[in-house]
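Archive entry: two folds, one per protein. Generate the first.
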Amino acid sequence: MSTVGGTGWRTILVGGLRGGGRGLFALDVTDPSDFSESNADKMVMWEFSSADDNDLGYTYSRPTIALANNGRWVAIFGNGYNDTGDGEAKLFILDIEAGQDGWQPGDYVEISTQVGDSSNRNGLATPALADIDGNGTVDRVYAGDLEGNMWAFDLSGNSSSSWDVAYSTSGSPAPLFTTQANQPITAKPVLAKHPTIPSQSSPSNAPNLMVYFGTGQYLVETDKSNTDTQSFYGVWDRGDKNLDIGNLVEQTFDTSYTGRVLSRNFVDYSVKYGWRFDLPIAGERAVTSAVARADTVFFNTFIPVIDPCTVDGYGYKFAVDMVTGGSPKETVIDVNRDGVINNDDNEDGENGVIAAIRQDGYLPEPVFIEDLVFTGEVATKIKKLPDVPTGRFSWQELIK
């Protein structure tokens, strides 16, 4: 970030405590040679905790640093879980250069969804950010809550007083989408421009973003035994609100195959807003962020095992078509691990393209290096795919 006082470019690290506490911190890590105990006061910029605002819960939500439309550098994050305030799911936007002399009115913005209360505490997960107009500032934010709502926040105004939940009904905040049976959303969504409808040709569809996310939670010990059905969704934000599963096309697993093969039911985007499918195993959940590459969405699921004498559990590595949510149009995963991507990896040629393969242990967010996707220490060869134009996720200086 470039400081307002003109002292030059600085590198700032902002982190949270996850289940270890209700707080975040910011460190100035511009000069690694200053990293020492004697320079701790110089490095530590601020702390923000539930003592400053009791609407902040356990900080599982990962902060993202961005340049806001008011010209200030900010840290954006959800309020997390089990707060001691009013229990509503909220988005926090902190001015990074504030807080060094305590937190004052105007140092941060708190946007409430007004969903949740002290007897049924809600919480907002890690948000995804979008720069809609390509000018280097964050315009829109998406995040899910424990009640199964996917929220859109509008930060496009030049004044922070105009920032709010993007949609409303009779003056109250309205979600973009609500999952079936209020399935909890605890993972950061992944965003991409609509793959078949150009924004410039249909300005009435603005912001014209696809929002991809899974459901389920794995936060407390009792979550291990939860067997509620969870799902994965691809929802189109074209300016409408209060969407539900009736607005989506459902895909299903073809049980005639041994492997996980999904249907490819057509999604007519003139009348539908995306797609969904249920995860087939009791207790299976998607609790880490997906990744979008080319025309494919990659994500991992997890099925806990309660027996303490066994491994942590197991999960599935998914690759699904971005447009329909079905099996990819052509082979993506090296299922038989022979180093070659071809029809030998399918069950019935192009009709039986495998959408997911099993892996033991807890599966974190997928990481890509060339034509390999890593989940933990396990690498799987995939078809080499270019990155999808998702918009800006983080901000960094390229040229001084």
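Generate the second and append.
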Amino acid sequence: MIATDDKNIGTSGDEFNDSTAKYVLGNAWNGNSYRYTLSKENAQEGETWYARAYLVYTDAEGNVNTIYGKIILANA
């Protein structure tokens, strides 16, 4: 999961990725499903945070691919 409070990055579509995010959080798990939660402590009133999930996987040919989910925003 990635997150940022930078509006320019958070609203930039494909430019909001694991290289531009303020926070990059992840966990590898070998199974059928996994739930990941991002919590922000000490958020200041009026802050807006942008977050999106992403998946990095290796296909049958050995190519590493990254898929990004929908950008979600939350206001403190």
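Annotation attached to the second fold: The first strand starts at residue 2 and ends at 4. The first helix runs from residue 7 to 10.
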